[in-house]
Amino acid sequence: MKNSTFKKETCSNTNLDVNSCTLRVVHDINNILMPALNAIELIKDKIYKFDANISSELNIIELCIKDTVSILNNSKKSVKEIYNKNDIVNIKKIIEDSILITKSKYSQNILVEKQLEKDLNVLGNSTELREVFVNIINNAVDSMSGKEVVIKVNSYREQDYIVVKVEDCGLGIGSDNIDKIFTPFFTTKKSKGTGIGLSICKDIIDKHRGEIFVESEKYIGTSFIIKLPAVEKELITNENIENNYIRDKGLKILVIDDNINIRFIVASLAKKVFNAEVKECTPESAEEEIEKNNYSILISDFLMPINGVELCNKIKSRFKDIYFCIMTGCVELINDKDKDNVDYILKKPIDIKQLEEMKNEYIKINRLDIKEM
């Protein structure tokens, strides 16, 4: 009995150590990637007028970093948590992004033809769905053997489903292997492949309540057909307030972080989104800075020498009207009790979209008159 209890405790402690280690690694990598991602957003704004091609290449880098972060963050969660958080996803945009990401893999003798309907939307996880199409396009490229060929990508509405068809005229799959291609670790690429790509694709599509099929003929080519439940356009309700900028000259924002790079980048993005005066400081000098100036919004990191939540409680006890936001890559570390005084949580890496959502929430809470801004 003692031995059994000891084993359970050891196992439990091991799991805690692994979870803590995972959270720490995710937090540290988020901190490394966040300045890079935010810097790309700022650079894109500056160079777009002069060179749209460079801006397009930066989009690819930005997408890859965002997907890396999303996969990292998902490593902390259960499968149920990952797939319960669905957004409205435009399939045309997802496919176009996937073609851009895979562009460097195929040479000039491979042409990708696309016929994509515009208003095709599904409920889903954009990172996961993009992973599906990147995987399938890469497989199509691998099957070409260097000859001059065409990959066709079509999307259309079929009753209550969005259908995406990816066709290639490559080597094809033999009838003896066609039923095995979604089996984990099965591959016909020998040393080139791991055999997990298509099994991951099937898992993702299944979780999105969709279906994936394959049709193939040896030496003729292969078609992958994906069906996902459609979302009616009328169900999509995005508020127009996200397009309005705060122009209240009295609004001041303070960014607090012990990392100078993150501090600078977040302050730059906040200034762009809020169109307000934005300053930055270390956690040690935060209280002194707040006493000198009448700040409306504070954006503070969570894991600092001074804990972000403790700083929030301290400041809120003296300045109750301040809107306090916490930045973190590990929301799990903030318990419900600690969230009492926190007005908003920004998940790292922070981007313009998140700050715009925070701005909209701030507007709602403070009942600001949008028309006067």
From TrEMBL:
Residues 24-232 form the Histidine kinase domain. PROSITE patterns: HIS_KIN, RESPONSE_REGULATORY. Pfam families: HATPase_c (PF02518), Response_reg (PF00072). SMART domains: HATPase_c, REC. One of its GO terms (molecular function) is protein histidine kinase activity. Keywords: ATP-binding, Kinase, Nucleotide-binding, Phosphoprotein, Transferase, Two-component regulatory system. The keyword ATP-binding applies. The modification 4-aspartylphosphate is found at D301. PANTHER family: PEROXIDE STRESS-ACTIVATED HISTIDINE KINASE MAK3, SENSOR HISTIDINE KINASE. May play the central regulatory role in sporulation. It may be an element of the effector pathway responsible for the activation of sporulation genes in response to nutritional stress. Spo0A may act in concert with spo0H (a sigma factor) to control the expression of some genes that are critical to the sporulation process. This is Stage 0 sporulation protein A homolog. It comes from Hathewaya histolytica. The gene is luxQ_1.
